[in-house]
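Office hours follow-up: a student asked to see two folded examples consecutively, so here they are.
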Amino acid sequence: MSERASQNQKIFCIGRNKTGTTSLGAALQNAGLTLGSQNTGESLVYDWAARKFDRIVEFARSAQAFQDVPFSLPYTYQILDHSFPGSKFILSVRDNEDQWYASAVRFHTKIIGQNRIPTADDLKNFMYHHQGYVWDVTRLTYGINEETLYDEKIFKSHYLRHNYAVREYFRYRPRDLLVINLADDQAEARLGSFLGLESFAGILPHLNKS
């Protein structure tokens, strides 16, 4: 990416979590872009839930590129598109909703459930940011309760709706949106081309696999 473009454009990774967002963030840093604090972004999930985007927009002024919550959640990309004209958006996806769901549940099982699918109490008691944060994010994002936690239909429907809505929003703006599956052989080349990098070999690591 040219110096001028990197100063004037924002790069927003808006794919749902467990689609390679950590690797994308690292790739953007490898490309020389400043990456917004994930910790700060995640703390704004309650603003997102209330559809109060002022602090999210203000946070987006702090760096050049952003990934994960709240940027990976529905509606945020629309506000950012209006707030930062000329920015680029990256929708990372998996092969299908089954693969994404399995990865999401497996990740929670690994870090929270201690090799079993977590319960609602597990999420409520887990310490990340603060006790109960993971439960709040899951509840607010998917609209679940104690009985529907990890409901396959609810989770998959959310993933498909988000991807469809993003594609529809940018339907006639192909230069502004890159839809990418990081498992594809050409993913790195496509990402480099989208970002306007002259040399993009080796910028895309594979991190946080589950």
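And the second, which I mentioned at the end of office hours:
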Amino acid sequence: MNQYHNPDSATIQQIVRRPQMDTSTLAAIIGDVFDNIEKRKDEALIEYTERFDKIRLSSLQATSAELVGAEHALPMALKTAIQQAYKNITLFHERQRTESIKIETQPGVMCWQQAVPIDRVGLYIPGGSAPLFSTVLMLAIPAKLAGCSEIVLCSPPNMHGQIHPAILYTAHLCGVTKVIKAGGAQAIAAMSIGTESVPKVDKLFGPGNQYVTAAKQKAFEKGTAIDMPAGPSEVLVFADNTGDPAFIASDLLAQAEHGVDSQVIFATTKLDLIEQVLAEIKQQETQLPRQEMTSIALEHSHAVSFDDVHTAFAFVNEYAPEHLIISADAPDQYVPLIKNAGSVFLGHYTPESAGDYASGTNHTLPTNGHAKAFSGVNLDAFFKKITFQQISDTGLDNLGPTIIQMAEAEQLQAHANAVKIRLNRS
């Protein structure tokens, strides 16, 4: 990790810059994928699956027997863990419901907002280097709670044409209506465009590599909504003089093992804590099976010390991390200083892993600094809010002159006439 002490503003801008990949040819590749899927539908999707996943499928959709059978392929301990996570995530998201309230803005003028579920949603679940069945929980549970009529899930199959049983079991548990054996940009294109086997969805959710991320952006350009801009996973750990080096190192390594393009940041107001944390990282990393991956991620990661806590949190907010861990005996004192973060983990015994799996909060979060303006996935992400209004004749008598005055000032006479004609009838 690169080390800094009280960096100036120019250096901070360098530190907060995320690792960049060469995307010069990416747009053309993704454009070709979308064109191919649009022209050849299932046939193209099957060919992409054969090319990238080394299996030629006769059918893209997972059968009911496969979904039910996945339960028998998992050990009871894992099923119990998934069920516990399901319970916590369901409870947290269910409590996010809000009631529609009618507001009489003035006599005879009623306005209200109603949450209506998005009809069809598409969930992308990576299954390459790691089968992210936890993401099924994070996306399918709020989709089901919202009342989405169709929940389509895409995940790449293995070379035997099977999706990991943990993904299938969790999908069945969460009420996913259709599971498609397809991954990568081609799966995003299929859900955006629609094929014989894959319904065209209204909104896309889920993480992925640079190809999946670029495909989601292409889908948005073509009219399919997406959950949020996303990129490689990241964490920032802040510690004061009560931080535990072993805990901090474990949290940094947990994020670094996501991939070589992940980034981890350690910020502290205790200078000598950095060397202790780096020593712990070196020791713990040797025990990890993905050590080669974490080592590369750590090369473009940073440890930064500050003399002043307010300067430290100015840096935290400028970075706007996907995950923010506060490693302190009294973490609540720092909460008022937090302005930008996807999800925050307070105290020594709240590892980011808890939010990734089972505490109840959602792990689909904005990355690459987008936490300055975007929220993570929540129940509202599966609704659109429609506003309603109803005006009585008395209400229009009272409000009409205001509308006419404003419309005529904008030189939109037809707008004014739509009110005048009603007032003349009353």
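Two things to take away from it. The chain has a mean pLDDT of 95. Residues 76-94 form the longest helix (19 residues).
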